[in-house]
Amino acid sequence: MLEEPVVEEPVLEEPVVEEPVLEEPVPVYEAVEPVPEQPVVEEPVVEAVPVYEEPVPEPVVEEPVPVYEVVEAVPEPVVEEPVPVYEAPVPVPEPVVEAVPVYEAPEPEAVPVYELPEPAPPAAYGAPPVPATHEPAPAPGMPDLGPIEPETPRVEAEAPPMPTFMPSLTGADGAAPAAEARAVAAANRSLAGTAIGDAMMLFQISRLRRRRGAAAEPAPIEESLQQSARVDTLNLIEAAMRHLRAVTVGRLREKPAVLAVRVGTYGFEVLLSRPVGAPEGWQSASQGHVLELQPEVTIEDLHAVGHGPSLCPALVPVGDTLEGPLMLNIEEIGCLIVSGPGTPSVNLLNAVVGALGSSPLAGDIRIITVGMDVPSGIVGWERVHPTSFDSPELEGLLNTAQAGGGTLLDVLVVGPGNDLLIQRAGQTAATAGTRLAVVGATSSVAARWPWRIHVDETTTAVVHPIACTMVAAQVTGPTMTQLLTGVPGPAQPAPPGF
Question: Do residues 209 and 488 make contact, with C-beta atoms less than 8 angstroms apart?
Fold first, then answer.
């Protein structure tokens, strides 16, 4: 069969018709004149007045009544305790006891039978009695100690009321100490407080005599001083201090810081605050804290070397010990406090002032006293400047010393009743480099200054901190009157100011 041909129908394309584009008209805006804004008026805020509302009562809630249920008691379980089983005790062996030996008393010794001696025939009348030739038998049971010796009375050595000075600073065995009665008697006979002070006052009277051109005949006061003055000891002290300065300071060596000097049983001793090497003519002891003058050095040797001023111009005697007089260097100490009753303390201050004013060792020293009632014209008081605690001169002196100025050595001696002044001046004097030294009296026993002399009513004193016991120097009022009336030539009043 023949296949019919497939005739494809023609596809008709529809014509595309373009839609017309419509142009939208551009809007035209007209200028609108601005309308003036009207001010906005704020309406006042009216606060709402609170309306009182009655409180609504809270509803009453009825609490349910608790219902308790009865609980049946539960019986506790019965615990049966086990019956302890009895154990038989273990037998303990008995300790072995040793047999104690039985003490057998010794057989008593036969006691000798005491036989009475035959009585001696009666002696003739007037004959001396015949001494017994037998010894009494000892009591039964007591050993025979032999014949009884006759008892001899025992003489007990009385301890001296004033102990010795102190153990020797050098440790050497010195000669026997001087008798106590001799030291006390010398202190009582002294007019200036000590034998060294009498020698200083005698030197001052001789100097005043030469200056005033008085008659060569000595006054009665000089004769009294010559009986108790130790001029040779004073000459030795002066020569030794000049010699010590010449062999130390004169040779550009360290200056010895001299605290005290003692001359007597143990030789010439110088106590130092710090150790130094022994210079020429001296020997060192106590690890350099003590200088001793060599025994072979004579006073002529000291004068041959020692020229110029003294090493310690403020060296003053303060009392006598059993070993010899004791002198303190006020310049090195700085502040020396005297405590104890008023009369012995003031008398010791008088002795210090008189010794400073008449000492040949003192050079450029100015002495100021406060609270010291002393008549003018007494030997040794010509260089004293009395003043009061509130004077402007004293205030200027303390200010100058506190600032470290001044060329002279000012020694301020303060009487009792001025503890505040002593406290202030003592602190200034303790400052290194100051030219002020203070000696003051206080009635306070509890004063704890580094250097202090405590004196009692019997004039026995103890120097701290060297624990030295001595008879303190004392210059009383009658003695001052005697010194005042016995001065040759017209008396010189004390200077008015300083």
Answer: yes
Per-residue pLDDT tens listing for the chain (498 residues) = 555 666 566 555 655 555 655 566 665 556 556 655 665 556 666 566 666 666 666 766 667 666 666 666 666 766 667 666 666 666 676 766 666 666 666 666 665 555 555 655 554 444 455 544 445 555 555 555 555 545 544 443 343 333 333 443 433 344 444 444 444 444 456 788 889 998 998 888 888 777 776 555 677 778 888 888 899 999 999 999 999 999 999 999 999 999 999 998 889 999 999 998 899 999 998 888 999 999 999 999 999 987 888 999 999 999 999 889 999 999 999 999 999 988 999 999 999 998 998 899 887 889 999 998 766 667 778 788 899 989 999 999 999 888 877 778 999 999 999 999 999 999 999 888 889 999 999 877 666 788 999 999 999 999 999 989 999 999 876 666 666 555 554 444 445 455
Topology of domain 180-485 in CATH is Rossmann fold (3.40.50)
Q: In whole angstroms, give the CA distance from residue 299 to residue 417.
A: 44
SS (H, E, C) 195-229: HHHHHHHHHHHHHHHHHHCCCCCCCHHHHHHHHHC
Task: Tell me 444's DSSP state.
Answer: -
In angstroms, the CA 200 to CA 345 distance is: 21
396, HSE (Cβ side, Cα atoms, 13 Å): 7
Q: Where are the domains of the chain?
A: 180-485
Query: Nearest CA to 453 among 468, 474, 438?
Result: 468
Angle between helices 220-228 and 195-212 (to 10 degrees): 150
Strands (E) in 290-370, as ranges, are 290-293, 315-320, 325-329, 335-339, 365-370
| Half-sphere exposure of residue 244: CA atoms within 13 angstroms, side-chain side | 31
Helix (H) or strand (E) holding 411: strand 409-414
- Report yes or no on whether pTM surpasses 0.70: no
Single-letter residue type at 266: Y
